[in-house]
Amino acid sequence: MTTHLEVRRDHACLIVHGPDRSGIVAAVTALVARNQGNIVTLDQYSDNPECGEFFQRVVFHRPDLQAALPEIEADLDETLEPLGLQWRITDQSIPKRMAILASTSDHCLLELLWRHRRGELPVTIPMVISNHTNTAEDVRSFGIPFFHVPSQGPDKSAAEARIVELLKGNVDFVVLARYMQILSDSFLDEVGVPVINIHHSFLPAFIGAAPYRKAKERGVKLIGATSHYVTEDLDEGPIIEQDVARVTHAMTAGDLQARGAYVERAVLSRAVQWHAEDRVIRHGNHTIVFT
User: Fold this and answer.
1) 10 classed as catalytic
2) What pLDDT score does 7 carry?
3) What is the pTM of this model?
4) Which residue out of 10, 91, 235, 243 is catalytically annotated?
């Protein structure tokens, strides 16, 4: 099986964003050409061509990319910073390190582990952390380390400190695969990497326990899921991906929950893949996603 990472050898992904102005595309494409790169894909978006923000994702192939990166980065500084543009460049053959936090529900967790094993996600998974032990055997069957960090009672500081200790410097982003704990602002600051969450799309209509039972009682016709970046504002971070599924009056609360779990798995997997492939640009409290 050919994996994402094998396909992307000697491929770089360049993200550019900043004030829109004439000549940006010409400057970027000329920069790639003079550094012996061949553009594979180029996506761009301007929210207002007269006075707005410009966003661009360029993937290009360059033989012996790793050796050439320092020279390319120096050229980016010299070319783009005078234009007021911010940029980042990544070697697409180097997978991002993704930690997963989970609780008792295993559907999102196992979906990510399965896709990773099949080579469908360009990530490594150095660890899974859970406040319960029911998924430990499944996780270890994938050859991935499992850490149990209990989190009980109103004071979560000890648990968060242990999780930070495990994550700090060892991961590039974190995924909450139905991790049913509210993370503190200090935790997010200390971890210092993006955190991606998944939840059903009933919020705020059916907040709290038993949302699918409440949804059944109200006779909902659509259920869905939302994946977003975690910020200090609970469940209000920039949205990466969403989807819905139609349901009927004949379905039980259990049927709704099963359909919802299916949507959650798909939405979270897409969000993780797009983040890992540098397809998501955060801008304020929303995202530009080049799919």
Assistant:
1) no
2) 67
3) 0.94
4) 235
